[in-house]
Write a structure and sequence with these properties.
The complex is a heterodimer of chains A (433) and B (302). With 433 residues, chain A is of the alpha/beta class. In chain A, 29% of the residues lie in helices and 21% in strands. In chain B, the strands form 2 sheets. In chain B, strands 7-6-5-8-9 form a 5-stranded parallel β-sheet, covered by helices on one side. Chain B has a 4-stranded parallel β-sheet with strand order 2-1-3-4, with helices on both faces. Classes of the chains: A alpha/beta (433), B alpha/beta (302).
């Protein structure tokens, strides 16, 4: 296997406590040497990282790749292309496909298609209940053996606390966390946005923050009761943050993630009655976004995650009541995090984008330690303007379209091979696993 | 200049709002020539049942000489965004220049106006807006008082579900009317409070200072949706009956956008009260709609 030398960059690796100008040598798909002024060997490709930051490959633990079942929205291959274009070397795909990812066969098929695509590593999150119906437990041990990195019914909330508690008790000995999508459907009703002054003014059905908070509280209580490692997806309210802090103070093994859109955008984006910013949980109020940004700085939020949720433009052009929730996130994420938190240290930025999600999912990733898989993200403090039409994702819809973001991915390396560089993707025939 | 639309009262500048009301008042005192909109194809597109508004618009269109087309599709057809754009293109191609539209979803009129090469008049979209209703209410107040600034108006009842209330809040604020919204919190969340808009839970305390009171229709389904308990618990507190009407100043007027539920938001004797303006409101509706059509036709020609 060919070797690679990444030269001249500022290498920031929180796992090793490293932040210095270093060169990195990659061979056989792994980090083989880190040092100053390494000389290129014959046959070694050189990546010039001058004025760039070289970080362990970013991991997005919350994406929707729509395959199987809704491949007009996205596929493993287009999602993996969008991932490397956004600087992600590993993405964890949610099981709300058709059919849902609730069998070992389906999980192995995800892995196979990820290999065929040869871009980012796609690892599956398995359904928490059969068919994501919230009624029968999924076969956790078999799914874990087939590569599940977590269990979730994301997209819906397991309605029954009894079933969720049983699931947590049964799966307690497995390291894979449960991931909760927290929205009480009864309180949520037919909401298309957040409930507040804007929904009142516009005459639109709003989903109160309470609809999220009440389920976050419930699920953290179940985590407390069962001892199961628990992760709260796309946490979006100030009160849910307080609930997280309380749970941790009581020793609950709980973590949480925040999306780029909840950090940056608010519920004032519906005056045109278009569904471009319709998402679950909905964009909240400015005080919520401010609380989320503060919690990133303080460490109360563990992980950045995009909730990349591509849809067809025609689907998002429907009336607000009919249009699906979510939008594309992978290709704007790094820029959007930096836009939200211009003062955040690179150490914290990379911890939340690479190290912490890798640890939570038990992946051999998130580090540039010698011998680790050479999954590397190179980015620059270089402003760029989002043009959704040019996304690699099939989803061309994002409320960030047209915004200028301060940080841009230049190169993404997966298993020692360049997968994305200077606006182009380079699929491999097979990724070493 | 692109054709203008009336999506809500704030589609009009303050000056235009005053001008439209003046025009409506003129049309009421002397019928205009019947050829103001001669040859202009106007489509009445009602996705939702309407008797009063549809009839009122049709009469207004006849009186200004428009070519009238009426289409009443089901709410489910024409639902998709893609179809909105296609339909708008088709209608404009046929030659339709004005669409008067009612739809059960908030925002439909705005979405249609954004893709239609012509004028859209919102005849009611979901819970969002019903601007010609607000204009006719404002004309009723103008006729009564000759001014807006400093008037105190209460809107009582199911605010959260009312496009009439929303459009009146927009219009009345623009004209400097003091607004007090009255109702239980399930029908009137605190999020309605803003500059110029007070929220009250006690109707009796509000009555003596009012120049006008607008009672909104209470639908019986609000009890099954657990937004209200048994209706007599609601009426005990919020119904306008003879006793409460007696606490209104002698000069105050009683308004209702209709259709009313006798014995729920107000009682029979209040409807018969000489201060009740329901019939004048309905009558003003035709003139306001004539004035709106005339105004929009004028913006298109400009």
């Amino acid at each position: 296997m060919s070797a690679l030398l990444i030269r001249g960059g500022r290498v920031v690796d929180p796992s090793e406590g490293l932040d210095a100008l270093r060169d990195i040598r990659v061979s056989d798909g792994r980090i083989s040497e880190i040092g100053e002024h390494l000389a290129a060997r014959p046959g070694e490709a050189v990546v010039d990282a001058t004025n760039c930051i070289v970080a362990p490959g970013f991991v997005d633990m919350h994406v929707h790749l729509r395959e199987p079942g809704q491949t007009h929205k996205e596929t493993i291959a287009t999602g993996a292309a969008a991932a490397v274009a956004g600087g992600f070397t590993t993405v964890a795909c949610m099981p709300n496909t058709e059919p849902a990812l609730d069998s070992p066969t389906l999980l192995r098929e995800i892995a196979r298609r990820s290999d065929v695509a040869g871009l980012a590593r796609v690892v599956p999150i398995a359904a928490l209940t059969k068919g994501r119906k919230g009624e029968e437990l999924a076969p956790y041990h078999k799914l874990a053996e087939a590569g599940a990195v977590a269990f979730s019914d994301d997209g819906t909330t397991v309605a029954s606390p009894r079933i969720l508690r049983n699931a947590a008790q049964y799966a307690c000995d497995l390291p894979q966390p449960f991931i909760s999508h927290c929205i009480d459907i009864d309180l949520h009703g037919a909401a298309v946005m957040h409930e507040g002054v804007h929904s009142a003014r516009l005459g639109l059905d709003g989903s109160p923050g309470l609809a999220e908070d009440i389920v976050v509280a419930r699920d953290l209580l179940i985590a407390h009761d069962t001892g199961k490692a628990w992760h709260i997806a796309h946490l979006s309210t100030a009160i849910s943050l307080d609930l997280m802090r309380y749970a941790r103070s009581r020793g609950v093994r709980a973590s949480c993630e925040v999306t780029p859109h909840h950090l940056v955008l608010c519920d004032d984006r519906f005056d045109d009655y278009r569904a471009d910013a319709k998402v679950a949980p909905p964009l909240r109020e400015e005080h919520d976004a401010a609380a989320l940004r503060a919690a990133v700085r303080s460490g109360d939020i563990d992980v950045f995650a995009t909730d990349h949720a591509p849809h067809g433009l025609d689907e998002k052009a429907q009336l607000l009541s009919q249009a699906p929730v979510g939008f594309t996130g992978l290709e704007v994420a790094l820029g959007a995090y930096a836009y939200a938190l211009p003062d955040l240290s690179l150490d914290r930025f990379i911890t939340m984008g690479a190290l912490n999600p890798a640890r939570l999912l038990g992946l051999d990733a998130g580090t540039l330690a010698i011998g680790a898989p050479a999954d590397i993200t190179i980015f620059a403090e270089r402003p760029w303007t989002v043009d959704a039409k040019r996304f690699f994702s099939k989803g061309k819809n994002t409320p960030f379209d047209g915004m200028t973001l301060p940080r841009r991915v230049t190169t993404t390396i997966v298993a020692g091979a360049i997968a994305f560089h200077d606006g182009q993707i380079f699929p491999r025939t097979a990724i070493a696993r | 200049m692109a054709p203008r639309s009336l999506i809500d009262v704030d589609s009009l500048t303050h000056e235009e709002l005053e001008a439209v009301l003046d025009r409506a008042q003129r049309f009421r005192s002397a019928a205009p020539a019947r050829d103001l909109l001669a040859g202009v194809p106007v489509l009445n597109l009602f996705f939702e049942q309407s008797t009063r508004t549809a009839t009122s618009f049709t009469l207004a269109e006849q009186r200004v000489g428009a070519d009238i087309i009426t289409f009443t599709p089901g709410a489910s057809s024409l639902g998709k965004g893609e179809t909105i754009a296609d339909t708008a293109l088709t209608l404009a191609g046929i030659g339709v220049r004005v669409i008067v539209v009612r739809h059960p979803e908030s925002g439909f009129a705005r979405r249609l106006a954004d893709v239609f090469d012509g004028s859209v008049v919102n005849a009611g979209d979901g819970r969002h807006a019903h601007p010609t209703q607000a204009l006719l209410d404002l004309l009723t107040l103008k006729t009564e008082y000759g001014r807006f600034a400093g008037l105190h108006v209460a809107i009582v009842g199911d605010i959260v579900n009312s496009r009439v209330a929303r459009s009146n809040i927009v219009g009345m604020r623009a004209l400097g009317i003091e607004i007090t919204l009255v109702g239980p919190r399930t029908l009137l969340p605190e999020s309605f409070g803003r500059a110029g808009v007070r929220i009250a839970r006690d109707l009796d305390a509000v009555l003596p200072s009012l120049d006008a009171i607008m009672m909104l229709r209470i639908q019986r389904e609000r009890t099954t949706a657990a937004l209200l308990p048994a209706l007599d618990d609601y009426t005990a507190r919020y119904q306008l009956d003879a006793t409460r009407a007696a606490r209104l100043p002698a000069h105050a007027v009683i308004m209702h956008p209709g259709p009313y539920n006798r014995g729920i938001e107000l009682t029979d004797d209040v409807l018969a009260d000489p201060r009740s303006r329901y019939v004048q409101q309905v009558n003003n509706g035709v003139f306001v709609r004539m004035a709106v059509l005339d105004f929009l036709a004028g913006t298109r020609a400009a």
